[in-house]
Backbone:
């Protein structure tokens, strides 16, 4: 069936919304993840709240590092529902270094989700922050971002470099609020 017709039928209740899921298995898992209504907020023992005051801009950034591993999309939803925030966007080396050091104190998983996504676009890679702030800084590991498909971004807790990773991977994450 045509996608528009399926959408109309799903809205009318005469066709299952599952027919609308994309053919890509990763996209299907993310679509399933997005439909979950029961978001469980992390326990206090699974989080660490930290803040950073930028000496140059006198701005204070507040973060929660969550050690409970989630997919990128579920992490975004937890940040929004439980902390009224979003996955962290990082705009300076100082903030990147601070978040990396704090995350290293909380988890041994090696990587944490931050709020960046990438998409191949006309021979290049388009990077964006989930909170739609300006893309003015990056700290990619050599060879990244990957260019073969859309990816989500992790921050390595050992060296602070960013890597592209499939969004369905379950990792700790950093919320900014």
Residues:
């Amino acid at each position: 069936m045509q996608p528009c017709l399926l959408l109309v039928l799903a809205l009318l209740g005469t066709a299952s919304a599952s027919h609308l899921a994309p053919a890509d298995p990763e996209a299907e898992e993310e679509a399933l993840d997005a439909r979950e209504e029961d978001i469980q907020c992390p326990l206090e023992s699974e989080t660490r709240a930290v803040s950073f005051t930028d000496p140059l801009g006198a701005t204070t950034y507040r973060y929660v590092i969550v050690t409970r591993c989630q997919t990128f999309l579920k992490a975004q939803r937890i940040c929004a529902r439980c902390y009224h925030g979003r996955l962290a966007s990082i705009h300076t080396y100082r903030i990147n270094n601070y978040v990396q050091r704090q995350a290293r104190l909380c988890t041994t998983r090696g990587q944490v989700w931050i709020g960046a996504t990438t998409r191949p676009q006309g021979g290049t890679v388009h990077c964006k922050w989930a909170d739609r702030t300006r893309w003015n800084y990056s700290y990619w590991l050599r060879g990244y971002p990957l260019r073969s498909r859309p990816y989500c971004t992790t921050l390595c807790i050992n060296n602070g470099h960013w890597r592209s990773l499939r969004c369905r991977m379950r990792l700790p994450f950093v919320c900014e609020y």
Observations:
- The longest strand covers residues 60-70.
- The CA atoms of residues 23 and 29 lie 10 Å apart.
- The chain has one domain: 44-176.
